[in-house]
Amino acid sequence: MRLKEISAKNYRTLQDIVIHFSPDYCTLSGKNNAGKSCVIRLLCHLMEPQHRFWRHQEYPLDYGEDRTQWAKGEDKVTIQWKISLSASDDPALISTIEVFSGQKTSGDEVEINITIQLDDGSTTTNVSVNGEELEDRASREIVSKLRSSNCMFLHNSAEHEGPIFLSRQGRRQT
After folding, report:
1. If DSSP codes are grouped into helix, strand and coil, which group holds residue 74?
2. Bridge-partner residues for 90, per DSSP?
3. Which of 107, 117, 50 lies closest to 84 in space, CA to CA?
4. What pTM value is reported for the model?
5. Of 89, 72, 63, nearest to 3 (Cα)?
6. How far apart are CA 160 and CA 84, in angstroms?
7. What are phi and psi of 133, to 5 degrees?
8. Side-by-side strand order, sheet with 123-129
9. ∠89-44-74 over CA atoms, to 5°?
């Protein structure tokens, strides 16, 4: 799986931006308050499993918290991830995408666009596969499968806490 780009409108300090990722190793650097942490949060939100039995979601999206404060009016927060996936990455995931999208993938790569829009009262998630928008249930299933696929890994060297392991008694161990 390869993340091709992220676009964000009215998300925290990212008022209107498109970030293209190279096919290889990527790093983020820049001035303070330039939006590096926002990009990391978006990457984590995309790849973090929605439901963890032992703790809450670390990177939830919330209109009140995440909307750019200097945006005028009631503008929505819009985030889009463009991903390409090949059968060599994960054939089972490709098969699942074919089932839920109702289309047989042709060629080496499948292009998946995931768009989330937040406004004051709702969150909508739309997924398109090779340019064809999917219904709500299929969109949710594909996002869930992508998150649990472990096809993409993120190392955040700025993370403040190390990994948390639970013992049988449920106490925190580091």
Report:
1. coil
2. none
3. 107
4. 0.79
5. 89
6. 31
7. -75, 140
8. 14-20, 2-11, 77-86, 109-118, 123-129, 132-133
9. 120
Residues whose CB is less than 8 angstroms from the CB of residue 152 and which lie 6 or more positions away in sequence, other chains included: 1, 2, 3, 47
- pLDDT (tens digit per residue) in 95-117: 888 998 888 877 778 999 999 99
Closest CA to 44 of 99, 73, 6, 86: 6
pLDDT at residue number 164: 45
pLDDT of residue 169: 47
Written as six digits, the tokens of 91 are: 């054939």
Question: Are the C-beta atoms of 112 and 142 separated by less than 8 Å?
Answer: yes
H or E element in which residue 115 lies: strand 109-118
| H/E run at residue 116 | strand 109-118
**Residues with Cβ within 8 Å of residue 113, at least 6 apart in sequence:** 80, 81, 82, 83, 127, 128
Decide if 112 contacts 144 (C-beta within 8 A): no
Name the CATH superfamily, with its identifier, for domain 2-173: P-loop containing nucleotide triphosphate hydrolases (3.40.50.300)
The parts of the chain modelled with pLDDT lower than 70 are: 49-59, 150-174
Q: Which residues pair with 77 in a beta bridge?
A: 118
What per-residue confidence (pLDDT) applies to 170? 44
Tokens standing for residue 12 = 């925290």
